[in-house]
Amino acid sequence: MIGLEKRPTPSRAWSYATPFLAVALTVIAGGLMFAALGKDPVAAIRTIFYDPLFDPQFAAYSRPQLLVKAGPLILIATGLALGFRAGVWNIGAEGQYIIGALTGAAVGLALYPAETRAIFPLMVLAGALGGWVWAMIPAILKTRFNTNEILVSLLLVYVAENLLASMAVGRLRNPEGGGFPGSRNLSQWDAAKNPELVAGTGMHWGVVAAFIAVIFAYILLNRHLAGFHIKLAGQAPRAARFAGVNPARLVVFCLGMSGALAGLAGIFEVTGPAGQISIDFNVGYGFTAIIVAFLGRLHPVGIALAGLLMALTYIGGELASFMLGIPAAAIQAFQGMLLFFLLAVDVLTNYRIRLGHREVAR
Amino acid sequence: MDLSAISATLLVASLMVAATPILLAALGELIVEKAGVLNLGVEGMMITGAICGFATAVETGNPVLGFAAAALGGAMLSLVFGVLTQIFLSNQVATGLALTLFGLGLSSLLGQGYVGIKPPSTARLDLGPLSDLPFVGRVVFGHDWVVYLSLFLVVATWYFLRRTRAGLKLRAVGESHHAAHALGLKVRAVRLCAIAFGGAMAGLGGAYLSLVRVPQWTEGMTAGAGWIALAIVVFSSWRPGGVLLGAYLFGGVTVLQLNLQAAGVALPVEYLSMSPYLITIAVLVVMSARGSKRSLGAPADLGKQFHATH
């Protein structure tokens, strides 16, 4: 009979190997899913993972998209991972992303049509602040009233979505837009735009911010006392309390950081790739970032790589839906599957598989 | 604005309809949590149930088969969660989230081609002269069988948990899995059964949304109903009666908010639409401010991993 035996310490080798194993298993299972949809699985996998990067026809368009899509994912996931490590579950990043975009855009639009580049940093600050404030709601409810932060942060996503819809047709609507919902186009306004920094790479300020966030998170977690407290609180909450870690401050810090980073992702998106506040401006980066955080094993460098891979599935998914008629929803299911496999193979990190008969009468 | 247009009879009647999906899902999650498992995938199981039920009902023309398929679909999906958390010992919070993300993708994949179709209608239960009584007739006796099933299940859940040996075992597993294991109870098996039951109930709730309440299939149509069901379990202090109260309270808010929208209140529609979520948060805060989770009645081993070492 097959049994599991807990390892004295988690296996380092397996902790590096499991993400790759999970990706391999997802590719196999995804291939089966595409076959079930009546598509050639090899062609589908090739279109998703290979063509966006190397196909001579599409690569010129697809390659820059990689950083455009990975930027917000990495930015949000880096913040989420800090909390997940400490056992603080912020799953409402989608809401903080929306609010960041709204507050940042509102600050910018209030100053329209001024033409000074100082507006852009102001908007970025307002975006980070907006996301931070939205994340402070579950943080304060958690620390003051011990309310479950998972449910509150998630329910606030629906509140934020309604707020976005109301703003897009109300306060932030473009007065010269002929009554159509949606704000002025921020990416065409020189004072507020978040342009591509190096032509043909897709690099914009949000991507720069994402890589800075990765570096800071790495330093925080490995070289700084606060990072040590985060890890300690996640692995041994009781020991953390004896070591003088203040749980309330940790909740506020983790939720605040992840909220601010999600807000940043929102404002960089709305001033750059998205261009304007519209009713369906958010596309689920806040939720996909949860997968990215786990796929990156909650480690900043891992998250950067995982973000790029997840961005690739987005772009490849679009290409597959365009070329092979694979529904966009299949990619969403594919991404969900990846998280399943990741969680399943993670057992190998913490447990050893033991074959043979169990001893009787212990 | 004309508030007199809101009829109390219709309000209460539609309240019951609005509350039923959440009541079903929350009752299922109650059993799951009583067994010590926190499944955050209710939203994913609900929406999978919604499309499984919808597709089956449309293809067969029989809503009852639709509800059966929804329960089956929800249970199958929940077993993915069950296998991962109970056998592969994965983190319950993360796995539950994965279930929701996967369920949302899977449902919109299955739902391709079902957008804009009307499902076969679920008939009102004919209760003869009872339905003709003024007010009470329409409010209490004018519903379809699922509403009565959900009310029956509230009582059945209470009876199961409080008055049966199996219910006692389930609660023992949730309060202390090590003690239950030492007594010879099969912790994993009990939990897997509870998880499958929770999935089936969430599936039923989802199907009620797509077959009766809306009735249509649209992507992401559950719109947070699964999360609200989770909140209602906390609100109920893990008691079936509390789940009923919470679900009907929430149904009332939803229906009132929709009626106010129709009556043309001077508030933008979006603000009214967000009110159920805000009220759910407010209720959660009030509940949690009253005491620790433990004193509110949460099972002691809720969300903890169980690995039998000997």
Averaging pLDDT over every residue of chain A, what do you get? 86
Number of strands of chain A: 2
Largest sheet of chain A: 2 strands, antiparallel
Uncertain parts of chain B: none
SSE arrangement of chain A, N to C: EHHHHHHHHHHHHHHHE
Strand order of the largest sheet of chain A: 1-2
Description:
Chain B: It is found in: Cell membrane. Chain B: Its main location: membrane. Chain B: This is ABC transporter permease. The complex is a heterodimer of chains A (362) and B (310). Chain A is mainly alpha-helical and 362 residues long. Chain A has one domain: ABC transporter involved in vitamin B12 uptake, BtuC (Orthogonal Bundle), CATH 1.10.3470. In chain A, 69% of the residues lie in helices and 2% in strands. Chain A contains 15 helices and two strands. Chain A has a two-stranded antiparallel sheet. In chain A, helix 4 crosses helix 13 and helix 6 packs antiparallel against helix 7. The longest helix of chain A is centred in the first third of the chain and has 28 residues. The model of chain A has no long low-confidence stretch (mean pLDDT 86). By secondary structure, chain B is mostly helical. Chain B has one domain: ABC transporter involved in vitamin B12 uptake, BtuC (Orthogonal Bundle). In chain B, 71% of the residues lie in helices and 0% in strands. Chain B has 13 helices and no strands. In chain B, helix 10 crosses helix 11 and helix 11 packs antiparallel against helix 12. Chain B is globular, with a radius of gyration of 20 Å. Chains A and B meet through helix 6, helix 7, helix 12 and helix 14 of A and helix 4, helix 10 and helix 12 of B.
Give me the secondary-structure topology.
The complex is a heterodimer of chains A (362) and B (310).
Chain A: E1 3-6, H1 12-36, H2 41-49, H3 51-54, H4 59-86, H5 93-110, H6 119-145, H7 149-169, H8 205-223, H9 225-235, H10 237-242, H11 247-271, H12 285-295, H13 300-323, H14 328-345, H15 347-350, E2 351-354
Antiparallel strand pairs in A: 1-2
Chain B: H1 8-34, H2 42-60, H3 63-87, H4 92-110, H5 136-141, H6 145-163, H7 165-175, H8 177-182, H9 187-213, H10 225-235, H11 240-263, H12 269-289, H13 293-296
Helix pairs in contact in B: 1-6, 1-9, 1-10, 1-11, 2-3, 2-4, 2-9, 2-10, 3-4, 3-9, 6-7, 6-11, 10-11, 10-12, 11-12
